[in-house]
Amino acid sequence: MQSHQIQPAPEPPGLTPQAMAAWQSFLQAHTVVTRALERELVATQRLPLAEYDVLFQLSAAPDGRLRMAQLADRVLLSRSGLTRLVERLEGVGLVRREVCPSDARGAYAVLTTTGRARLGAAMAGHLRSVQEHFGDVLDCQQMESLRVALDQLVAANLAEPAACAQEVAPTKP
Questions:
Q1: Is residue 58 packed enough to be buried (19+ CB in 10 Å), middle (13-18) or exposed (0-12)?
Q2: Cα separation of 65 and 62, whole Å?
Q3: Are 66 and 74 in contact (CB under 8 A)?
Q4: Model confidence over 21-71: pLDDT tens digits?
Q5: What is the CA radius of gyration of the chain?
Q6: Were 60 and a residue from 32, 37, 144, 171 both cysteine, which residue would form a disulfide, CB within 3.0 to 4.6 Å?
Q7: Which domains are seen in the chain, by residue range?
């Protein structure tokens, strides 16, 4: 009987073993941490992480409003996915849509008073979860190194410049 040894997967062309390991670690860390944050936010606030993120991004924007395309870029949803999410939030009074006065084809998502209150109720617990699953795991030097590396990745991969000179940089809680 012949023994079969499992052969390691071939190294992807143009990707070093270090780059592949870092990439896989990045993906796994993102998945594990965001799942934990989602689970806790839904359990304590009945608010999915994507909805929290939309409310947070709007709260950080001037006048609590962003063009739908800008909001889609910040929350990493497709425009159609964001449209459906904003429709749900609008249905429960957390967000409203307004026509853009300078471009009738465009629309703004605007945070309502109810939406701001809902975000406020969820924020302290969510930030405690972020601290537990992220801040307590890394020391200050590791966090700074990670921030610098991630900022470098973002800057190198931005598809296009900001659509509006008044746009505020995306903020993540």
A1: buried
A2: 6
A3: yes
A4: 999 999 999 999 999 999 999 999 999 999 999 999 999 999 999 999 899
A5: 20
A6: 171
A7: 30-157 (1.10.10.10)
